[in-house]
Amino acid sequence: MTDTLNDTDTLSEYFTDGTPLVDTRAPDVDIAQMWTQAQFDNALVNPANRRKLDVIIVGTGLAGASAAATMGEAGYNVKAFCYQDSARRAHSIAAQGGINAAKNYNDDGDSTYRLFYDTVKGGDYRSRETNVYRLAEVSTKIIDQCVAQGVPFAREYGGLLDNRSFGGVQVARTFYAAGQTGQQLLIGAYQAMERQVAAGTVQEYTRHEMLEVVVVDGVARGIITRDMMTGHIETHLADVVVLATGGYGNVFFLSTNAMGCNVTAAWRAHRKGAYFGNPCYTQIHPTCIPVSGEHQSKLTLMSESLRNDGRIWVPKRAEDCDKDPRQIPEEDRDYYLERIYPAFGNLVPRDIASRQAKNMCDEGRGVGPKVGDFRRGVYLDFAAAIERMGRSAVEAKYGNLFDMYARITGEDPYQVPMRIYPAVHYTMGGLWVDYDLQTSIPGLYAVGEANFSDHGANRLGASSLMQCLADGYFVLPNTIRNYLAKGPFEKVAEDHPAVVEAEQSVRSRIDRFLSINGERTPDSFHRELGNVMWEYCGMERTDAGLRKAIDLIRGLREEFWRNLKVLGTADSLNQSLEKAGRVADFLELGELMCIDALHRRESCGGHFRAESQTEDGEALRHDDEFAYVAAWEFTGDADRPVLHKEDLSYKFIELKQRSYK
Amino acid sequence: MNLTLKIWRQAGPDASGELVTYQMTDVSEDMSFLEMLDVLNERLAAEGTEPIAFDSDCREGICGMCGLMISGDAHGPERTTTCQLHMRSFNDGDTITVEPWRADAFPVVRDLVVDRTAFDRIIQSGGFISVNTGAAPEAHSVPVPKPDADRAFDAAKCIGCGACVAACPNASGMLFMGAKVTHLGEVPQGQPERPARVLAMVDQHDLEGFGGCTNIGECAGACPKEIPLDVISQLNKDLRSAAFHRG
Lengths: 661, 247
What we know:
Chain A is an alpha+beta fold.
């Protein structure tokens, strides 16, 4: 066992300690009564007053569209913004596997408490109990809501809903629609929102990017956007602002995120005073299609549900790695997850499956073509499943995923085992929020992947769709009213100094991008940043590596502002300009992620610090030192953030070393 | 492989456009079509030419944002989205023409980017089930026969990319609409609004400037999600029945 480092003194050059943070919004009652009590305690806004209140929602994925639909139905004036050409294209649409809910339709021992327990444990005891219990509690209502909207979930022949099981869990509580659950849920939320657009309660702004938050007297009162088609800079004022802008995995350049996913909205809010929680927690997903070459623009995920029937293996001997896998006999294969984790087997949580795949490849037992000096792949084999279930049953269950794999790799996965490798997927960190989902800026809320709250240091499968819809349909509409009930709010004038300042900073930033006139494109900086992040702040982090990464990022950022090249103009569709703004923010976020990872001298969930592991290579937490949320404050200097700690107190679940053996 | 690309360049909605020729060398067959355009764009930027604007987002074939006419085919020669089209579908020495979707209802924004918000307005006109949040009954209170659920799902696979419109000589949006009408019409939850839905959607479709359907079938042939042509028959059936009941 390696101990934590004791050179805390040298960390003081990277950040300063701030005052502790406490979330006091959850009522002080038993956890099972907490949400009911909170809904009662939160003030009401009478229906006639709701239409006088303006709500801005940025992002129209599962969290944003469901929030917009629900707030619109309730009668508020909603403006919903997204950078895509239609709300239906948000990246939630790409989620494949499913959505959890504690319905216990299979009577296999599931309950609200068990979903709560699994999620806290799965997050490696780094999430907030109160929020997670509420998530488990409202999960069942999500399924009812979506079914009523016509979401075509998979069904049994009796006409009832079908379930399957996901990583880190021993019950079947995952509802799904083939491999396209995210799409179907998003279309449901999108349709609900479009219904409100027709009803006039929601105004939709597509191809609009939020570039600044307007903060008046310490309170969020609006946003500055750029119309991406015309370049117009617009001011939108409101009584409350909700960010539903997703995660920041694209800081790694290569990830499973959509190309447009970015951190700008959250980062602009952070620079205006919103604390950023646990930025270093990145989920690496174990089942992605391996990188094929230098041209690669993104990585494609193969649903985790494949691990229900597929068996993961590598050759026992390194010299077998270039053989046709079908020629490697059973006794020469190492089904390493089944061997090391007999209770969970191929269904261990994502962080564990990912790290073990990396270990196999690091040992020289990876498969597939060499990229650099390494073979970065392990087999995901369906031969046994095809023999057991028949090819047509496998096709019915996973056909679209198999087709996608074949298209990308040019190989037939029905004949040859798939090759998979871990890739950056989901970011558990995000804007710090309290139990009400309010950030540290009053009047600014963050929902879905954009906040940090529910997944701790790791995210279990089928839990992100659940969190996004829980926040959007049920939680936010019930907590935000407590804030809105303080209205009516004094109107902010368009020429208020804070509004003018926000708008001016957007304009001067754009002018600066266009006037540097250097040699390198935004993409080239982004790719280089991504390499640094993956190498030093990816699946495994070390003290020395993180310090090096921080230096590299600072150097890269200096070069960016000196040597960037953006062609075209500000007054038209300009995709290079859009990228430049996002890369500039990624360059600052990347450094904060490394500082956060550096200060957290323990391993937990998606954060694996090499210096902190058990004798058999599992993540070793240090609850006595690190059972807190790291909430970072921006000080005006990206190199010197302030760390506020929110202690995590576990009253209902006992902290244990996570074991899946 | 080496390729000759003829790509539509158009500075803005009101500008006139033209095909510009670019030579590509050393294209890997493992690249997606869009990655090939990324490589070209990086080269153009280095040369001081503005990169070619095109839409893409998830690059996993599901968001529906990408869509190019490639040598006359919506999404190119394979039946897939443009982001999932790989260069192994082409041969060394090929000349490839790349254009935006062509339809009055999809005005060009710039280069290969078009405005498809007409589809959103069709959905706004009635492509939903009216249920307020929190008003839903227990999910198991309404069983749905598996064949109906499966058929609803097959229609719900539509990603709204607009390839059907681009492929249709009439620029009709009937496959898109038929998919939605079939999806919601196959589940019990969709029944109360079924007649009103189809009438409203068809009205909006016509208002947006999409053409009528003359059963050519190019739409279903080009659809990357293999939405079957019979969703249009379903739409017509629902339309007749709704019109009859409306009188």
